[in-house]
From TrEMBL:
Entry GO CC: mitochondrion
Residue ranges of domain Peptidase M16 C-terminal in the record: 60-223
Pfam family name, one: Peptidase_M16_C
Name of the protein: Uncharacterized protein
Source taxonomy: Eukaryota, Metazoa, Ecdysozoa, Nematoda, Chromadorea
């Protein structure tokens, strides 16, 4: 796709049904993930969805696609990363199959964090909320390490079944028994969002969101070393999953970050660093909600 795409008219027509299906089958997390970016970055470039709006599907023409590719599909914007493949084989594949146009990197448009709300009503007895604030830039290994320790202390969902650490974070104690919560982040080049994903029944969502916000605002880390050990374990365990690790590592390369640098930086994180990161997130919240949203508190009330 990235190597001199032709964008034949019939190829564009063939993907329209797929775009419509993708748009119609977003799960609640995907909805609030997109919407919290709209709330946080408003009219900035990071507010743009990765999904085409319904009214835009089928409207992009051949010439527009070619112009976009000529501007962005360049060697300076490209990373070829392989998992479970030796360097020479990967290099040979790139030389043979990826004939990318030569050109320098296109600098991303700055998208300052602003904060706010985005609410989307849907027929449901449940409410999905992403509560986030501004986090670490993707180019700052120490800040990313600090943020990783913070999210571990709050409590993150695990990709390992029956993980004993699930429910052991600060969030499980604050949001209440009928709500589920997990720390979350979305890292970009010069900014990131960090916070909490909450799912709760409509009559409990307000308490869960307010308690989660207070947990971030008043965070005090009592067992730093345990949180750091858990963070390192999570980072190492994530690295063995080829698909997500490939995406994560590619993003790090774009930001000139070595994944080992983040692991090493975890050792230098202090309790004060973590508490300062929490205060930065809490300085101005963004709230995206989906489902039964009537009881969801607005960001400026938190």
């Amino acid at each position: 796709m990235a190597a001199r795409p032709a964008f034949k008219p019939w190829e564009i027509e063939d993907v329209i049904p797929n775009l419509e299906i993708d748009n119609a089958n977003k799960d609640p997390y995907q909805v609030v993930f997109e919407d919290v970016h709209r709330a946080a970055y408003r009219n900035g470039s990071l507010a743009n969805s990765v999904y085409a709006a319904k009214f835009q599907i089928g409207k992009f023409k051949y010439g527009e696609m070619v112009d976009f590719a000529n501007k962005h599909f360049l060697s300076g914007n490209a990373v070829l990363y392989g998992a479970n493949i030796d360097h020479e084989t990967l290099k040979g594949y790139g030389s043979t199959h990826l004939d990318i146009c030569q050109g320098g990197a296109v600098a991303p448009i700055k998208s300052p964090y602003k904060g706010g709300d985005w609410r989307r009503q849907a027929k449901s007895e449940w409410t999905h909320v992403l509560l986030a604030g501004e986090g670490a830039a993707g180019s700052d290994a120490k800040a990313l390490a600090t943020q990783a320790v913070l999210l571990t202390a709050l409590g993150r969902s695990s990709n390992v079944p029956h993980d004993a650490s699930v429910g052991a974070g600060l969030l499980s104690k604050s949001v209440g028994g009928s709500a589920a919560a997990s720390a979350f982040q979305a890292v970009h080049a010069d900014s990131s969002l960090a916070g909490i994903y909450i799912v709760a029944p409509v009559d409990h969502i307000e308490k869960a969101v307010r308690n989660a916000a207070q947990t971030i605002k008043n965070l005090k880390l009592s067992n730093l070393e345990a949180a750091k050990r858990r963070t390192v374990l999570d980072l190492l365990r994530a690295s063995v999953h080829s698909a997500p690790q490939s995406l994560e590592r590619t993003a790090q390369i774009f930001n000139s970050i070595d994944d080992r640098a983040i692991l090493k930086a975890v050792e230098q994180v202090t309790a004060s660093d973590v508490e300062s990161a929490a205060k930065r997130i809490a300085a101005k919240f963004s709230v995206a909600s989906y489902g039964a949203i009537n009881n969801v508190p607005y960001a400026d009330t938190l």
